[in-house]
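Q: Hi! First time doing this. I have a protein sequence and I read that you can turn it into a structure. Is that right? Here it is:
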Amino acid sequence: MIFDKEITIPVQDKKSIENLRAGNKILVSGKIYAARDSTLSEISDLVEKGNILPFKNSAVFLSSVSTIDQIQGKYAVGPTSSYRMEAHILKLIHSGLSLLIGKGTISENLLSEMRNKSCVYLGFPGGLSALLSKTVKEVKVLSHEHLANEALFELTVCEMPLIVFSDLLGGYIYRH
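A: Yes, that's right. Below is the predicted 3D structure, encoded as C-alpha cells:
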C-alpha cells in the first residue's frame, strides 16, 4: 500500500495536519494516548475543571490496551466506536488535541468543533486491530490503573497505518 504522508506525534508543525485531506492514507509514529469509556469520562472532567493534560499537539486513540507478551513487548489494541465518546472528545479538543484516532462515524457537531480547534479525525475500518497492534512498540500506564486495559496509556507507535476520516477543510469520508 502506498501512503500519502507520515506524521510524527507530538505534532511540531501544524502544517503537517493542515495539509491532510479526507481519504489520505498516512503513517503515524511517536507517542499517542489511549483511553476508553470510564477513563475518558474522568479525564474529560479533569479538563473541564481546568487541569492541564498532556494532549496538546498530540493524539488520543479511543482504544483499550492489553498485554499479550510483556517479555517480547506485544500488545493488543481494541478500538471503540468514536460516536459513543463524543461528549468527552469535545472537552479534549478544547485542550489542544491535534488528532483523534477512532473508528466509525461522528456527528456534524463534533466535526465542526474539531475543524474550529484544528483537530483531525483519523481511523481505520473495523477488524484491523491485529495490524494496528503490530505498530505498538511500547506501553506505559499513566493513570487509572484500576481500570486495567481501559486505563490511560501512553503508546509508542511506529508507522501505524491510518486513514484521514475528516480534514480541516470540511472533508469527511462518511459524508455522501
